[in-house]
Amino acid sequence: MKLTKQEKSWVFQDWGNSVYSIMITTAILPIYFKGVASNAGIADHVSTAYWGYANSLGTLFISLLAPILGTIADYQFFKKRFFSLFTWLGIAFTVAFVFVPSDQWMLLLIFYMLSLIGFSGANIFYDSFLVDITSNDRMDKVSSYGYAFGYLGSCIPFIAFIVFQATGILPISQTMLLNGAFVMTAVWWAVFTIPLWRNVHQMYFIPHDKKPVRSSFVRLGNTLKNIKQYRNIVLFLVAYFFYIDGVDTIFRMASSYGIDLGISDTTLIIVLLVTQIIAFPCTIIYGQLAKRFGGKPLILTAIFIYILICIYAIFMKTATDFWILAMLVGTSQGGIQALSRSYFGKIIPKERSNEFYGFYNIFGKFSAIMGPALMGVIAQVTGHTQYGVASLVVLFAIGGVLLLLVKAE
Question: What dotted CATH number matches 5-405?
Answer without folding.
Answer: 1.20.1250.20
